[in-house]
Amino acid sequence: MSVLQDKFNAIVRKIEDRIEDEELLSFVKQQIADISILFIDQLDKVVDLSQRRLDELIDHEKDLTKKVAQLEQTMKTMEKEFYVDENFDFEIVCPYCNYEFVSDFSQNLKEQVECPECHNIIELDWNNHEEHDCSGHCSCCESECGQEEEEDEEPEQETSKELKIEIANYDEESQLEEETDMEEVEDDDEDDM
User: Which is it for the CA torsion 54, 58, 63, 67, positive or negative?
Assistant: First the structure.
């Protein structure tokens, strides 16, 4: 700031050396001071504006830092929830004694496990269709298997036979009710005569 002040004073001295009329010199000095104040006010406004923008950027950076921290925390949580570890803990309920226990498995999944309470062997179904001699065309693997179709047709045939028997029984009952109703109507007609 002292360099600026020195330059300003040097300009004023040059003006004083050239202008001999005191009234004119006073007027020029006042105009230079007014212009200087105007420039300083404008500079202050620019500095204030720059400071406000800088403050906004700092606040925005703080917000972004918080959001990044939240995202990192969310990612860590998701990683813990979704990351599949090589060791699995499964909760198993024994079908023999209803004892509930936790068993851990590695990547090589076991096909059976022993109940720690009753010591019976529990076979585990991992929905691996290849182990069940599945040809890949049954409902458990979302396709149509010849074995499944045959098994499914038998209950349908039985169901349709049952429906036919029920319909026949209903028809017989309906006929009996109609005959009974007709006899009652005839009896009522005879009584009326």
Answer: positive
Q: Is the pLDDT of residue 82 over 80?
A: no
Distance between CA 69 and CA 156 in Å, rounded?
60
Distance of CA 121 to CAs 115, 166, 182, Å? 6, 46, 68
Q: Percent of the chain, pLDDT > 90?
A: 24
Is residue 143 within 8 A of residue 136, CB to CB? The reply is yes
Q: Parse the chain into domains and list their residue ranges.
A: 2-82, 88-126, 145-193
Q: Which residue has the higher pLDDT, 62 or 114?
A: 62
| Cα angle 98, 103, 107; round to 5 | 140
Q: Rounded to a whole number, what is the distance in angstroms from the first to the last CA of the chain?
A: 136
Cβ neighbours of residue 129 under 8 Å, at least 6 residues apart?
A: 136, 138, 140, 141
